[in-house]
Design goal:
Low-confidence stretches of chain A: 21-41, 358-362
Number of helices of chain B: 2
Largest interface: A-B, 50 and 34 residues
Low-confidence stretches of chain B: none
Structural class of chain A: mainly alpha
Radius of gyration of chain A: 25 Å
Strand order of the largest sheet of chain A: 4-3-7
Number of strands of chain A: 7
Shape of chain B: rod-shaped
Distance between the termini of chain A: 52 Å
Radius of gyration of chain B: 63 Å
Oligomer: heterodimer
Chain lengths: 362, 164
């Protein structure tokens, strides 16, 4: 029953995304002749739409019907050394038409303007707005904390003697999986110390991956800023776990003397490539999934632009592919969370592995 | 490329969000969950270990019982054998003793008989002697005139002799 309802949900999700995209595409079609302003997207521009879909924004934009935008504007928080703090709603910009408190929005970016309405390059602005990625991330954080604390309270209440029940049953195998398949094999006896970090990373990525799959929501894990922060934290954790043996291996690798000048920079560079790989892997995987799904939906409108019949004719094919990719994306959401966690554990394990372990390898 | 340009706001907020989740869940979720899981797992492991131990103990006990039973059987056999031996010995001893007593009694009786016989014989001899003397006296004292009368008298006397 669970499988059936889930597939039904996925179908609805796909249908909804197609529906919402249909309206947003319509916007550009109808806006061009009506609006007097100069827009670059005079024709249907799928790449721009895709980018709009996967990038961060200051509003949740669902649809545009005629001139009416169906969107949830989000709070804007700006700091400028020259002007101080500014806090207002994004709706004040009136969809990019108005200037507010000396700022205006251009291509989704907030830029400072001078009295004449020109871009004021002398003012430095730090945009700390609650963008849709931020808002969604905090929804995810709230959801995650709520669910996990609820589950944890159940553990506290029932103790070790009572078999898990309800959502506890769904969470427990995942936690034991992270512990037994990620923590223990990679970290050995020290695994207990790292479990809270590994579990947090896993579930933090997972919940944001899954929330990002809901149509209309933001692509949080497919944003480079998100993955940079997680990668940076991994980098710090890896660095703080290093031991003498690790650094010895980097600056004095067990190779003949003439190879050392080549290997030492490579090994040293490796310290940075590991978290970098984590950052890029998660980002690329999630962004690619979103691009593929939106591309399949776009295909309907690309064909539709050629001929209406082709558009309608291709719609079922496109929908089928979208649903297929959607299932893959659900899988990818779990896999990428696991891979990020697992590789972090592997790197931590490498950074603290002892000399005896090393000798066993060579 | 715009896609690879991280937004400052998102960087800051992600860091904040992650740290909030980490510290909140570390103390409120992961610790109780992991400790309960560990407790449960060690509990199960302990239960299995103790079950194994009890099983081993049971097996040892059974073994011990069997050994004891075998020993008891052996002891019983030995005891029966010993009892039989003792009984046989007692019977043999009793028989021997009885025989010895019997022999003694018989010997004593024989001795007594012999003594009495001898005494009786002596007595008879003495009586016969005295009778002979008596008869001889009478014969001698009667100076028989008649030879036939003499012979009758002897006959009479001889008849009067009572050999008791």
């Amino acid at each position: 029953m669970g499988m059936a309802s889930r597939s039904l949900k996925s179908l609805l999700v796909a249908a909804f995304s197609a529906f919402s995209l249909f309206f947003s595409v319509n916007t550009f079609a109808s806006e061009t002749p009506a609006g007097g302003e100069k827009h670059e997207e005079t024709a249907f521009d799928p790449s721009k739409l895709i980018m709009e879909h996967i990038m961060d924004a200051h509003e949740y934009h669902f649809a545009t019907i005629g001139e009416k935008h169906v969107s949830i504007p989000l709070p804007v928080i700006l700091y400028s050394p020259e002007r101080g703090w500014s806090l207002f709603n994004y709706s004040k910009f009136n969809h990019g038409h108005d200037v507010y408190e000396g700022y205006k929005t251009e291509e989704g970016h907030i830029i400072p303007v001078n009295a004449a309405g020109e871009h004021d390059t002398t003012v430095k602005v730090y945009d700390l707005s609650l963008t849709r990625n931020v808002v969604q991330m905090f929804i995810g954080v709230f959801l995650l904390c709520f669910l996990m604390i609820k589950v944890a309270n159940k553990y506290k209440r029932n103790g070790a003697k009572v078999a898990p029940s309800g959502f506890q049953n769904a969470v427990e195998p995942v936690i034991t999986f992270v512990r037994d398949e990620v923590g223990k094999p990679n970290l050995g006896h020290a695994y207990e110390k790292y479990m809270p970090y590994l579990l947090t990373v896993f579930f933090f990525i997972l919940i944001n991956n899954l929330l990002g799959l809901i149509p209309g929501t933001a692509n949080v894990t497919g944003n480079i800023a998100f993955t940079i922060v997680l990668g940076f934290i991994s980098f710090l954790v890896i660095l703080f776990s290093t031991n003498k043996h690790f650094w010895g291996h980097i600056f004095n690798p067990p190779v003949p003397g003439f190879v050392k000048p080549i290997l030492v920079p490579v090994e040293f560079f490796g310290i940075f490539t590991k978290p970098f790989a984590l950052i890029v892997r998660l980002f690329a995987n999630m962004v690619a999934g979103h691009i593929v799904i939106t591309c399949f939906v776009m295909l309907i409108f690309i064909f539709g632009a050629m001929s209406k019949v082709a558009g309608w004719g291709f719609a079922p094919v496109s929908l089928a592919f979208t649903i297929f990719i959607y299932f893959i994306e659900i899988l990818v959401a779990f896999i990428q969370a696991f891979i990020f966690t697992n590789l972090t554990a592997v790197f931590i394990g490498q950074s603290m592995e002892g000399a005896h372990h090393d000798e066993a390898h060579h | 490329m715009e896609l690879l340009n991280p937004g400052l706001g998102l960087l800051v907020w992600t860091l904040l969000a992650f740290l909030i989740v980490f510290f909140l869940l570390k103390s409120l979720a992961w610790k109780p969950i992991l400790s309960t899981l560990k407790e449960r797992e060690t509990g199960i492991a302990d239960a299995i270990a103790s079950a194994d131990k009890v099983k081993a103990e049971m097996a040892a006990l059974k073994n011990e019982n069997e050994v004891m039973m075998a020993k008891a059987r052996e002891e019983r056999a030995v005891m029966i054998k010993e009892a039989k031996e003792t009984a046989d010995k007692m019977v043999a001893d009793a028989k021997e003793k009885a025989k010895a007593e019997f022999d003694r009694i018989v010997a004593e009786a024989q001795t007594a008989i012999t003594q009495q016989k001898n005494a009786a014989l002596t007595d008879v001899k003495n009586q016969v002697g005295s009778l002979v003397i008596e008869v001889a006296e009478k014969v001698l004292s009667r100076e028989l005139s008649n030879k036939s009368e003499q012979e009758n008298y002897i006959k009479q006397l001889a008849e009067g002799v009572k050999l008791n």
